[in-house]
């Protein structure tokens, strides 16, 4: 099979401009990637275009939960909770190495969002709507039991709590798995290729004009249908088409901060009350704990969204209000991210009150746009869009939606126990080399079955420090050959997650990674300098608030 690599780009695009696609999807976040997989697996000739990197928009900046959204029950979003709740188990089955069962702790506090009875009823409804198996349903905890599970929760005003089932993921890796699965089913997919205009015939969209940032040239692709899944940029693209009538987007910013796990050493994911009536998640992951999110209206630069000092102070304040972690402050923050929710505007509603439902816009030109929704609901959103496309005009060989049973990696794991076994066997092999159990966990939960391919390329080194560098080199070669990376942050952020979860590794190796990519893509020394500077800036942006 042809490798999914920017190294093949020139040849691939020369062939693509000669094709007539059934469907072009603009936007390589989870929504666009899901649509590309659904369409290509139904037999549609599909092209996916992403202006930066796959998942570089909101789809690498979420809370990274595959969840039904307990709090949406309070807004009576029963349909949304049922759909996303049911989807959790499906997505877990499709990609067990990427979607992990996680027990969520909900402490009940005096004057909090949930009282004991309302929490118990809400989570029972939540479990029922999601079809949770009896053994995984919620469990009520006394105050003593809760403190035994999570000793850091402040005891004052505590009235027991609940433990219930959710799933944790890596949003960027999930998006990447969808893109790669779409490519396996015949789709073409290009990152760093930005839609700049539409092509029309008799007032109908018949293709797109793009800027290919890799080759620095303008190109055109032709198709019967064009769908925009551009998340926060959906209105900008509707404006290009002159079709902004009716509903519009209301963007809200959500921030997460990352601290070393030893500074907030929680045992479970905790869903807790901030001090202003909002709720937040604190989630342990490997060697860090991340906490978020804020929810504020946003109307600034969509392409550079940062955590401000006020955002970070708000989250640190909420942590200190709830957990007993003396002295936790801004200086403990090691990374952060800020993402935009593309919500649908409703007059008079605050950011937190706006619906998380998705919305489809159909323009007179034939352009279809989709925005809103959740990471968790990507598959059903994709199904609705492809059903709509097919209802307009389908190629004769198109079939029904199959994505509920299409594994996101081939070969896949039969079940979650096989993922755990894979981690343990890899950890055993790594032990003699000086690497830790963490590295086996990281490799399998990031690359799944490809972890073995990567590990087989790691030659023997001496000492853990050297081994980590050799492992990173093997990951880089793998991503260069088969995960469509071009810029260093494609690798350091979206493929490895290191920018958020292992920032020391980024600081240590960003020069080396840039140099290797420069060799691979034959960058001139001025290009190399410019790209290295941009890479370092993006790393610094994670802690930009410290300089405010
Ligand atoms: C703080 C926060 C926390 C969240 N937490 C969760 C959670 O825990 N669980 C959950 O299920 N959901 C969560 N969500 C919601 C979820 O993250 C989003 O619904 C989802 O990621 C949106 O994906 P998308 O593909 O629609 O948009 P995006 O991921 O933003 O993708 C749109 C893409 O379009 C591209 N694009 C824009 N213009 C062009 C152009 N001209 N040409 C080509 N490409 C273009 C962009 O570069 C971008 O990559 C959260 C959201 C936020 C903000």
Summarize the structure.
The chain is α+β, with helices and mostly antiparallel strands.
The end-to-end span amounts to 50 Å
Principal-axis shape equals globular
Mean pLDDT: 93
Beta-strand content bin:
15-25%
Fraction of residues in helices? 25-40%
Number of strands: 18
Low-confidence region ranges = none
Task: Give the distinct bound molecules.
Answer: flavin-adenine dinucleotide
CATH architecture of the largest domain: 3-Layer(bba) Sandwich
Count of discrete structural domains:
3
From the alpha carbons, calculate the radius of gyration and give it in angstroms. Answer: 23 Å
CATH class of the largest domain: Alpha Beta
Name the structural class.
alpha+beta
CATH topology of the largest domain, which one? FAD/NAD(P)-binding domain
CATH 4th-level superfamily of the largest domain: FAD/NAD(P)-binding domain
**Tally of helical runs:** 17
Largest sheet, strands/sense/barrel: 10 strands, mixed
Topology diagram in text:
Layout: H1 9-16, E1 20-26, H2 30-41, E2 46-49, E3 65-66, H3 78-94, E4 100-109, H4 116-130, E5 139-141, H5 143-149, E6 158-168, H6 171-184, E7 188-190, E8 193-201, E9 204-212, E10 217-228, H7 234-240, E11 249-260, E12 269-273, E13 279-285, E14 288-292, E15 296-297, H8 309-322, E16 335-344, E17 358-362, E18 368-372, H9 378-392, H10 416-431, H11 437-447, H12 450-456, H13 464-482, H14 488-495, H15 498-501, H16 503-521, H17 525-541
Helix pairs in contact: 2-6, 2-9, 3-4, 10-11, 16-17
Bound molecules: flavin-adenine dinucleotide (FAD).
Flavin-adenine dinucleotide is lined by residues 26-32, 49-52, 56-59, 61-65, 67, 194-195, 229-233, 237, 254, 293, 339-341, 373-376.
